[in-house]
Each structure stands twice: as C-alpha cells, then as structure tokens.
Design goal:
The structure is a homodimer of 140-residue chains. With 140 residues, chain A is of the alpha+beta class. The first copy, chain A, has a single domain, classed as Phosphoribosyl-AMP cyclohydrolase (Ubiquitin-like (UB roll), Roll). The first copy, chain A, is 16% helix and 35% strand. The first copy, chain A, is built from three helices and nine strands, in the order H-E-H-E-E-H-E-E-E-E-E-E. The first copy, chain A, has helices at residues 4-8, 20-26, 55-64, and strands spanning 17-19, 35-41, 47-53, 68-71, 76-79, 88-95, 101-108, 123-126, 131-134. Chain A has a four-stranded mixed sheet, covered by helices on one side. In chain A, strands 4-5 form a two-stranded antiparallel sheet. In chain A, strand 6 and strand 7 form a beta hairpin. The longest helix of chain A has 10 residues, at 55-64. The N and C termini of chain A lie far apart (41 Å). The mean pLDDT of chain A is 96.
Chain lengths: 140, 140
C-alpha cells in the first residue's frame, strides 16, 4: 500500500540517512495497530518466524535490544523467551521500501518455535507427490 | 492465532508427511482472504520482500513455479516480474507452525524491490544516533 513518507525517500542514495523517530512515526501500522515483523537468525540467515509488533513493542525492542512482539492471542506485549528462556537478542533492524514490514536479525537462544523446533517453517511442500513433510525436529 | 489443523500435526516426527491439499485448505487466510508470504533468496538467504497471496495466487505459484502474489493496491493477481522481467522462480515453499505464514525460497532475477534495489529492506536503523540509513543501491 502506498506510504507517502517512504515513497519520498525511496530514491535516496547509498549511505543517506533520515531521522529514525520520524520514520517510526510514518510506518504503516494496520487497522489493528500492528506491523509485520520477520525474524531472521543473524548467523545462519534462516528465517525463524513471523510475528507482529505494535508501536509499544517496537519501541521496547529498540530500547531493550530484546525482541518484544504483540501477542494477538493474549492481547499483550510478548517478550520473546520470557517464559521459555528462548530469547532473541536484536542485532539489526531494517524497514522495507513501503514502511509496512520490519526485518529483525537476531541472536536466537534455543528454539524460536513454540514446538521446540529451531524455526517455525518446518512444513515443506512437495508438490510432485501432494504432501507437506516435517523437515526439522525439536532441539530440546 | 490458533489453528486446530496445524496444532494437530505440530508434534509430528521428522520426515512425517500429510496431504498438501488438505494443509492448503486449512491455512489461515485473514479476513481479506490473504496470507503473508516471506520471500527469501535461495542462494544468498537474504530476505527479499514480504507480500500477500490469496488462495488463487498460492495455487498458481505452485502450479507454474513462478511467484504470484495478490496486489492489494491493484486488487489483482500479480505475477512478480511480469512487467519488469524481475521474476522469481520458486525453489522451496514451507508453511509455518500455525499455518498463517508462507516462506518461499526463490531464484531472483534482477532486483526484487520496485526501487531497483536487490531487496526491500534497505533502510537500516541506527538507534545510537537516531537514524535510518540507506544500505543498498539500485542494481540497474
């Protein structure tokens, strides 16, 4: 969807910079006040999970360096790993071209997935034989 | 959000498989009939973009092997690269633990981003000096 602020800076040159607080204010949160977050392992580059942040979760993540999402089921801030110990330390955060997705590279402790698997994307499609196959196992 | 089908298979063992067509039917499309798709370069493992598919786009992607999304701005199927030539050949597709996100690994031709940059996540936050910095340039 069109975002005038991010459109206005899209032809900027390599190395050019803009105020972070302004960019955060201009992010496209959806009608539930949420923005999509992709979390990627900094070292392996595996995509670990996708989740959502509201503005408060985003600011808390930047402030603490610990990935904090918005739990749509519990309707509350969700400090990843607070219960399980499987925390995610933020290494890099980037915004996308139209300001509606955040990419976070993290140091993951233990399993990223609630099933105990290293990441959430363990169901791989096999179109040729009409199957999905479980491609990883629990690491604990 | 809870998805009973994906919950029912989450303790399956490594290598166990399930019917793909059933899994597709059980995916959690949102109230606009869309599901989030993360697209990752198969070789570099860079996250290229995030976009959305409806059921039709998903089936077309699986059928043709060419990434096809739903354009929320044009309200139409969007065969990636159809105009620009910057196509994405599907290599692997996976579903996540709760059936509401799809991860696609692709062979990307040219720029994934509409700005001509290799991927959409070129605005990197620098919290220490309150900036976002452009970290890639156009490849064409």
């Amino acid at each position: 969807m069109k975002n005038n602020y991010f459109k206005s800076i899209e032809s900027a040159s390599l190395g050019e910079s803009f105020p972070l607080d302004k960019a955060i204010n201009e992010l496209s949160f959806n009608d539930q006040g949420l923005i999509a977050v992709i979390t990627q392992d900094f070292t392996s580059k595996d995509v670990l999970m996708m989740a959502w942040m509201n503005l408060s979760a985003l600011l808390k993540t930047l402030d603490t360096g610990q990935m904090t999402y918005w739990s749509r089921s519990r309707y509350a801030l969700w400090i990843k790993g607070e219960t399980s110990g499987h925390t995610q330390e933020l290494v890099e955060m980037s915004f996308d071209c139209d300001g509606d997705t955040i990419l976070c590279k993290v140091n993951q402790k233990g399993a990223a997935c609630h099933t105990g698997r290293p990441n959430c994307f363990y169901l791989k499609t096999q179109v040729q034989n009409n199957q999905i196959v479980v491609v990883s196992k629990q690491i604990e």
